[in-house]
Amino acid sequence: MCSADNFFIQKDGTYKFRADLLGKAHQQCHDNFVKALRDKTRRIVVDNTNTKRREYGWYLQDARNYGYDVLFVRLDTPVSVAAERNAHGVPLDAVQRMADRMDEVPEGCLEIVVSGTE
Fold it and tell me: What is the pLDDT of residues 69-86, one digit of tens each?
């Protein structure tokens, strides 16, 4: 599993987000993803918000270059429920903005929609 959030997990297991390091976090996540591709890892999960192609495009291109099929998992969760459940205290208005800017799944990719209301 590759996640930019992992960059912000401290040695004691606590999560400490720093916006000024977000670029480094995403670079590390991408580096881990490419390593998994090179290692021919059977299943690789990118656990990031990825609402716009500009956020996930390099993962998509790299996966295709290595011959992987790409599957998008979309959580069909009411925004209010997602805001209540998020582990990082992201406020409702920010979660709403993320939901509003969600791109369509790119051509040639599979999509699974999972109900997040249970």
Answer: 999 998 889 999 999 998
**The tokens 């992201």 sit on which residue?**
90
Amino acid at 8: F
Residue 59 CB-density burial (10 A; 0-12 exposed, 13-18 middle, 19+ buried):
buried
Residue 72, H or E segment: strand 71-76
Q: What is residue 6's DSSP assignment?
A: G
d(CA 4, CA 23): 9
CB atoms within 10 A of CB 102: 12
Residue 113 neighbours by CB under 8 Å, 6+ apart? 74, 75, 76
- Distance in angstroms (rounded) separating the CA atoms of residues 2 and 34: 10
Which domains are assigned to the chain? Answer: 4-115 (3.40.50.300)
Those residues whose C-beta lies under 8 Å from the C-beta of residue 74, and which sit 6 or more positions away, are 102, 105, 111, 112, 113, 114
